[in-house]
Design a protein that fits this description.
Length: about 270
Protein backbone atom coordinates (compact mmCIF):
# COMPACT_ATOMS: atom_id res chain seq x y z
CA UNK A 1 0.00 0.00 0.00
CA UNK A 2 1.31 3.40 -0.91
CA UNK A 3 -0.14 6.48 0.68
CA UNK A 4 -1.53 9.17 -1.63
CA UNK A 5 0.99 11.84 -2.63
CA UNK A 6 1.06 14.67 -0.16
CA UNK A 7 -0.35 17.97 -1.30
CA UNK A 8 2.27 20.52 -0.29
CA UNK A 9 -0.15 23.32 -1.20
CA UNK A 10 -3.07 22.05 0.89
CA UNK A 11 -2.85 24.65 3.70
CA UNK A 12 -2.55 27.43 1.12
CA UNK A 13 -5.52 26.07 -0.77
CA UNK A 14 -7.65 26.02 2.38
CA UNK A 15 -6.69 29.55 3.42
CA UNK A 16 -7.29 30.82 -0.10
CA UNK A 17 -10.72 29.20 -0.04
CA UNK A 18 -11.59 30.97 3.24
CA UNK A 19 -10.69 34.39 1.82
CA UNK A 20 -12.56 33.60 -1.38
CA UNK A 21 -15.71 32.44 0.42
CA UNK A 22 -15.81 35.62 2.50
CA UNK A 23 -15.37 37.88 -0.54
CA UNK A 24 -17.89 35.86 -2.50
CA UNK A 25 -20.53 36.36 0.20
CA UNK A 26 -19.90 40.10 0.43
CA UNK A 27 -20.00 40.66 -3.33
CA UNK A 28 -23.03 38.39 -3.77
CA UNK A 29 -24.97 40.12 -0.97
CA UNK A 30 -24.15 43.61 -2.30
CA UNK A 31 -25.15 42.64 -5.84
CA UNK A 32 -28.42 41.04 -4.72
CA UNK A 33 -29.35 44.01 -2.50
CA UNK A 34 -28.71 46.38 -5.39
CA UNK A 35 -30.67 44.20 -7.78
CA UNK A 36 -33.59 44.13 -5.34
CA UNK A 37 -33.68 47.94 -5.23
CA UNK A 38 -33.37 48.18 -9.01
CA UNK A 39 -36.18 45.69 -9.71
CA UNK A 40 -38.42 47.30 -7.08
CA UNK A 41 -38.10 50.56 -9.02
CA UNK A 42 -38.60 49.00 -12.43
CA UNK A 43 -41.52 46.68 -11.65
CA UNK A 44 -44.37 49.21 -11.18
CA UNK A 45 -43.44 50.97 -14.45
CA UNK A 46 -42.65 47.97 -16.66
CA UNK A 47 -45.35 45.59 -15.36
CA UNK A 48 -48.13 47.60 -13.68
CA UNK A 49 -50.85 45.38 -12.14
CA UNK A 50 -53.55 47.00 -14.29
CA UNK A 51 -51.83 48.47 -17.29
CA UNK A 52 -49.94 47.33 -20.36
CA UNK A 53 -46.54 45.67 -20.03
CA UNK A 54 -43.85 48.12 -21.05
CA UNK A 55 -40.33 46.63 -20.96
CA UNK A 56 -38.91 49.80 -22.49
CA UNK A 57 -39.42 51.47 -19.11
CA UNK A 58 -36.55 49.36 -17.71
CA UNK A 59 -34.02 51.68 -19.33
CA UNK A 60 -35.48 54.59 -17.30
CA UNK A 61 -33.63 53.10 -14.32
CA UNK A 62 -30.39 52.18 -16.11
CA UNK A 63 -28.54 55.05 -14.47
CA UNK A 64 -29.90 54.00 -11.07
CA UNK A 65 -28.38 50.54 -11.63
CA UNK A 66 -25.05 52.00 -12.77
CA UNK A 67 -24.93 54.09 -9.59
CA UNK A 68 -25.73 51.03 -7.46
CA UNK A 69 -22.90 49.10 -9.16
CA UNK A 70 -20.44 51.91 -8.57
CA UNK A 71 -21.47 52.69 -4.99
CA UNK A 72 -22.40 49.23 -3.63
CA UNK A 73 -20.78 46.44 -5.65
CA UNK A 74 -17.49 47.74 -7.06
CA UNK A 75 -16.27 48.81 -3.58
CA UNK A 76 -16.70 45.20 -2.37
CA UNK A 77 -14.65 43.98 -5.35
CA UNK A 78 -12.07 46.65 -4.55
CA UNK A 79 -11.91 45.43 -0.93
CA UNK A 80 -11.13 41.87 -2.03
CA UNK A 81 -8.42 43.11 -4.39
CA UNK A 82 -6.82 45.30 -1.71
CA UNK A 83 -7.01 42.56 0.90
CA UNK A 84 -5.09 40.09 -1.27
CA UNK A 85 -2.63 42.77 -2.43
CA UNK A 86 -1.58 43.55 1.11
CA UNK A 87 -0.93 39.87 1.76
CA UNK A 88 1.72 39.86 -0.96
CA UNK A 89 3.54 43.14 -0.52
CA UNK A 90 3.68 46.47 1.25
CA UNK A 91 4.96 48.01 -2.01
CA UNK A 92 2.70 50.28 -4.04
CA UNK A 93 -0.76 51.54 -3.20
CA UNK A 94 -3.83 49.75 -4.56
CA UNK A 95 -5.96 52.85 -4.02
CA UNK A 96 -3.98 54.98 -6.48
CA UNK A 97 -2.65 52.24 -8.78
CA UNK A 98 -3.66 52.74 -12.44
CA UNK A 99 -3.84 48.98 -13.08
CA UNK A 100 -6.34 48.62 -10.24
CA UNK A 101 -8.36 51.61 -11.49
CA UNK A 102 -8.57 49.98 -14.95
CA UNK A 103 -9.48 46.62 -13.45
CA UNK A 104 -12.32 48.08 -11.35
CA UNK A 105 -13.54 50.11 -14.30
CA UNK A 106 -13.75 46.91 -16.41
CA UNK A 107 -15.52 45.10 -13.56
CA UNK A 108 -18.04 47.93 -13.32
CA UNK A 109 -18.68 47.75 -17.06
CA UNK A 110 -19.29 43.99 -16.90
CA UNK A 111 -21.85 44.51 -14.13
CA UNK A 112 -23.66 47.38 -15.85
CA UNK A 113 -25.27 45.06 -18.40
CA UNK A 114 -28.00 43.92 -15.99
CA UNK A 115 -30.78 46.22 -17.30
CA UNK A 116 -30.25 44.79 -20.82
CA UNK A 117 -30.38 41.28 -19.39
CA UNK A 118 -33.62 42.00 -17.51
CA UNK A 119 -35.11 43.54 -20.66
CA UNK A 120 -34.16 40.52 -22.79
CA UNK A 121 -35.66 38.04 -20.28
CA UNK A 122 -38.95 39.93 -20.22
CA UNK A 123 -39.20 40.24 -23.99
CA UNK A 124 -38.66 36.47 -24.27
CA UNK A 125 -41.46 35.90 -21.74
CA UNK A 126 -43.87 38.22 -23.57
CA UNK A 127 -43.12 36.58 -26.93
CA UNK A 128 -43.66 33.16 -25.41
CA UNK A 129 -47.01 34.34 -24.03
CA UNK A 130 -48.11 35.55 -27.45
CA UNK A 131 -46.90 32.40 -29.21
CA UNK A 132 -48.72 30.13 -26.75
CA UNK A 133 -51.82 32.35 -26.66
CA UNK A 134 -51.67 32.68 -22.87
CA UNK A 135 -54.03 35.09 -21.07
CA UNK A 136 -52.53 38.54 -20.47
CA UNK A 137 -52.86 38.39 -16.65
CA UNK A 138 -50.76 35.19 -16.65
CA UNK A 139 -48.04 36.83 -18.74
CA UNK A 140 -48.11 39.90 -16.51
CA UNK A 141 -47.76 37.73 -13.40
CA UNK A 142 -44.80 35.89 -14.94
CA UNK A 143 -43.09 39.17 -15.88
CA UNK A 144 -43.68 40.50 -12.35
CA UNK A 145 -42.05 37.36 -10.99
CA UNK A 146 -38.97 37.99 -13.16
CA UNK A 147 -38.98 41.59 -11.90
CA UNK A 148 -38.92 40.41 -8.27
CA UNK A 149 -35.45 39.62 -6.94
CA UNK A 150 -36.68 36.88 -4.60
CA UNK A 151 -39.48 35.76 -6.94
CA UNK A 152 -37.59 32.67 -8.12
CA UNK A 153 -34.19 31.01 -8.03
CA UNK A 154 -33.20 33.04 -11.11
CA UNK A 155 -31.63 36.05 -9.38
CA UNK A 156 -30.12 34.31 -6.34
CA UNK A 157 -28.39 31.99 -8.83
CA UNK A 158 -27.19 34.93 -10.88
CA UNK A 159 -25.89 36.59 -7.69
CA UNK A 160 -23.82 33.48 -6.94
CA UNK A 161 -22.39 33.33 -10.46
CA UNK A 162 -21.53 37.03 -10.45
CA UNK A 163 -19.95 36.78 -7.00
CA UNK A 164 -17.85 33.71 -7.85
CA UNK A 165 -16.58 35.20 -11.07
CA UNK A 166 -15.82 38.62 -9.59
CA UNK A 167 -14.18 37.40 -6.40
CA UNK A 168 -11.76 35.17 -8.33
CA UNK A 169 -10.95 37.90 -10.81
CA UNK A 170 -10.29 40.38 -7.98
CA UNK A 171 -8.23 37.97 -5.84
CA UNK A 172 -5.99 37.00 -8.71
CA UNK A 173 -5.70 40.51 -10.17
CA UNK A 174 -4.69 41.72 -6.70
CA UNK A 175 -2.05 39.01 -6.32
CA UNK A 176 -0.80 39.49 -9.88
CA UNK A 177 -0.39 43.25 -9.67
CA UNK A 178 1.07 43.31 -6.17
CA UNK A 179 3.58 40.60 -7.15
CA UNK A 180 4.58 42.75 -10.12
CA UNK A 181 5.25 45.80 -7.91
CA UNK A 182 6.93 43.63 -5.29
CA UNK A 183 9.30 42.24 -7.93
CA UNK A 184 10.09 45.78 -9.09
CA UNK A 185 10.77 46.86 -5.52
CA UNK A 186 13.16 43.90 -5.03
CA UNK A 187 14.83 44.39 -8.41
CA UNK A 188 13.75 40.90 -9.51
CA UNK A 189 14.01 41.00 -13.31
CA UNK A 190 12.33 37.64 -13.98
CA UNK A 191 9.58 37.03 -11.41
CA UNK A 192 7.62 33.81 -11.94
CA UNK A 193 4.16 32.54 -11.04
CA UNK A 194 2.40 29.21 -10.61
CA UNK A 195 -1.18 28.25 -11.50
CA UNK A 196 -2.91 26.50 -8.59
CA UNK A 197 -6.07 24.59 -9.46
CA UNK A 198 -8.86 24.20 -6.92
CA UNK A 199 -9.82 20.54 -6.92
CA UNK A 200 -13.53 19.96 -6.75
CA UNK A 201 -16.14 18.30 -8.89
CA UNK A 202 -16.55 21.44 -10.97
CA UNK A 203 -12.88 21.89 -11.83
CA UNK A 204 -12.45 22.06 -15.60
CA UNK A 205 -10.14 19.35 -16.99
CA UNK A 206 -8.10 22.10 -18.67
CA UNK A 207 -7.59 23.79 -15.28
CA UNK A 208 -6.68 20.53 -13.55
CA UNK A 209 -4.10 20.06 -16.30
CA UNK A 210 -2.79 23.58 -15.65
CA UNK A 211 -2.19 22.86 -11.94
CA UNK A 212 1.43 23.67 -11.15
CA UNK A 213 2.11 25.38 -14.47
CA UNK A 214 4.98 27.83 -13.96
CA UNK A 215 5.69 30.82 -16.17
CA UNK A 216 7.07 34.36 -16.10
CA UNK A 217 4.83 36.68 -14.07
CA UNK A 218 4.30 38.97 -17.06
CA UNK A 219 3.55 36.14 -19.54
CA UNK A 220 0.21 34.40 -19.93
CA UNK A 221 -0.52 30.86 -18.79
CA UNK A 222 -1.59 28.47 -21.54
CA UNK A 223 -4.88 26.99 -20.35
CA UNK A 224 -7.20 24.97 -22.59
CA UNK A 225 -5.81 26.75 -25.66
CA UNK A 226 -6.42 30.18 -24.10
CA UNK A 227 -3.88 32.64 -22.81
CA UNK A 228 -4.66 33.89 -19.31
CA UNK A 229 -2.52 36.28 -17.31
CA UNK A 230 -4.08 34.83 -14.15
CA UNK A 231 -7.06 32.59 -13.24
CA UNK A 232 -10.29 34.48 -13.87
CA UNK A 233 -8.52 36.95 -16.21
CA UNK A 234 -11.50 38.99 -17.48
CA UNK A 235 -9.80 39.41 -20.86
CA UNK A 236 -9.84 35.63 -21.42
CA UNK A 237 -12.63 33.62 -23.11
CA UNK A 238 -15.72 33.06 -20.93
CA UNK A 239 -15.47 29.25 -21.05
CA UNK A 240 -12.07 29.38 -19.30
CA UNK A 241 -12.97 32.21 -16.90
CA UNK A 242 -16.55 32.01 -15.59
CA UNK A 243 -16.75 30.43 -12.11
CA UNK A 244 -13.07 29.49 -12.16
CA UNK A 245 -11.81 28.86 -8.62
CA UNK A 246 -8.12 28.48 -9.36
CA UNK A 247 -5.54 30.80 -7.85
CA UNK A 248 -2.20 32.34 -8.57
CA UNK A 249 0.99 31.88 -6.57
CA UNK A 250 3.83 34.33 -7.15
CA UNK A 251 7.32 32.81 -7.06
CA UNK A 252 9.96 34.65 -5.07
CA UNK A 253 13.57 33.50 -5.27
CA UNK A 254 12.50 30.12 -6.60
CA UNK A 255 9.95 29.53 -3.82
CA UNK A 256 6.21 29.95 -4.25
CA UNK A 257 4.91 32.79 -2.15
CA UNK A 258 1.91 31.74 -0.09
CA UNK A 259 -0.13 34.94 -0.25
CA UNK A 260 -2.76 33.50 2.07
CA UNK A 261 -0.32 33.23 4.95
CA UNK A 262 1.35 36.62 4.97
CA UNK A 263 0.38 39.03 7.67
CA UNK A 264 1.01 42.64 6.99
CA UNK A 265 0.78 45.35 9.64
CA UNK A 266 -0.87 47.63 7.09
CA UNK A 267 -3.71 45.13 6.73
ZN1 LIG B 1 -10.02 27.25 -12.71
Amino acid sequence: MTSPPEDEHLPARLRAQAIIRDGEQRIGRAWFRSLTRFLDRVRPAAAPPDGPLDPNRISDSAQFWTDEVNVQVVPEISNVLRRTWRRVTSAGDPVTDPYVADYLNDAGNRLKRVPDEVYARIVVEIERGIREGRPIPDVTAEVQRILTASGSELWPNRARTVARTEVMGAVNAGVFRSAQLDAEARGDMAPMKVWLATEDTRTRPSHRAADGQRTLLGSPFEVGGAQLLFPGDPRGPAQEVIQCRCSLLPVVLGETLDWTDRQNPRG
